[in-house]
């Protein structure tokens, strides 16, 4: 199957094309696993959540809206499944209390969209505040898709410097966005985790 964008995969998925499902699984499963692991701190739970998310994607494939971001939809489902898993685990009650503001998460899609836009604005502000070289390296990587080697060649610096700058940039974003509740952490994984 040739590489397609998410909307094309979703169209195929809605026609029961399992190869499209498989392509989306391979594209997003590692990020979903990392996201679930960051909340549950349990590798078994993260694996279970990842499997449940994709099971729901397959079961509800006909209801997925092509005009909306599949990635956002996927991480929203992952969020719900992760919280659901935490609630079901009696031994995890202490961890649930760490996420005290999380209750039923029954906000509408519009409210979620506004919250994501607010966090996106914060993320863009944080990127603008980075030191110039770090900001340039980060944007070449995340916005233009350059590899570390390509960035190093383009800027005339070592690959190690690129790696160090990217590590610092991602750590900074994760720390700052993580302070803005679970949606900040979700946005971090959605936009910056590969």
Walk me through the structure.
The chain is mainly α. It folds into two domains: 1-106, Rna Polymerase Sigma Factor, Chain: A, CATH 1.10.1740; 108-194, Arc Repressor Mutant, subunit A (Orthogonal Bundle). Helices cover 74% and strands 0% of the residues. The chain contains ten helices and no strands. The protein has helices at residues 6-13, 18-40, 43-59, 70-88, 93-98, 109-128, 132-142, 148-155, 159-178, 181-192. The two termini are 22 Å apart. Residues 100-109 have low confidence and may be disordered. Pfam families: Sigma70_r2, Sigma70_r4_2. It comes from Aquipluma nitroreducens. Belongs to the sigma-70 factor family. ECF subfamily. GO terms for molecular function: DNA binding; sigma factor activity. Residues 127-189 form the HTH luxR-type domain.
Task: For this entry, give a set of tags.
Rna Polymerase Sigma Factor, Chain: A; 10 helices; globular; 2 domains; mainly alpha; DNA-binding; Arc Repressor Mutant, subunit A; DNA binding; about 190 residues
What is the terminal separation in angstroms? Answer: 22 Å
How much β-strand is present in the residues? under 5%
Radius of gyration: 18 Å
Tally of distinct domains? 2
Main sheet record: none
CATH class of the largest domain: Mainly Alpha
CATH level 3 topology of the largest domain: Rna Polymerase Sigma Factor, Chain: A
Protein name: RNA polymerase sigma factor
GO molecular function: DNA binding; sigma factor activity
Keywords: DNA-binding, Sigma factor, Transcription, Transcription regulation
Domain HTH luxR-type: 127-189
């Amino acid at each position: 199957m040739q590489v397609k964008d998410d909307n094309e995969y979703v169209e195929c998925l809605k026609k029961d094309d399992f190869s499209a499902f498989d392509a989306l699984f391979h594209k997003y499963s590692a990020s979903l696993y990392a996201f679930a692991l960051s909340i549950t701190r349990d590798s078994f739970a993260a694996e279970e959540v990842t499997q449940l998310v994709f099971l729901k994607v397959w079961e509800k494939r006909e209801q997925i809206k092509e005009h909306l971001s599949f990635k956002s939809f996927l991480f929203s489902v992952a969020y719900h499944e992760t919280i659901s898993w935490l609630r079901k685990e009696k031994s995890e009650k202490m961890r649930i209390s760490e996420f005290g503001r999380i209750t039923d998460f029954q906000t509408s899609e519009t409210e979620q969209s506004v919250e994501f836009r607010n966090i996106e604005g914060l993320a863009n502000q944080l990127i603008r505040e980075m030191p110039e070289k770090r900001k340039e390296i980060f944007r070449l990587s995340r916005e233009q898709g350059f590899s570390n080697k390509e960035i190093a060649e383009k800027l005339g610096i070592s690959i190690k410097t690129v790696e160090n700058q990217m590590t610092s940039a991602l750590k900074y974003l994760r720390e700052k966005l993580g302070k803005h509740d679970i949606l900040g952490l979700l946005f971090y994984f959605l936009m910056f985790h590969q």
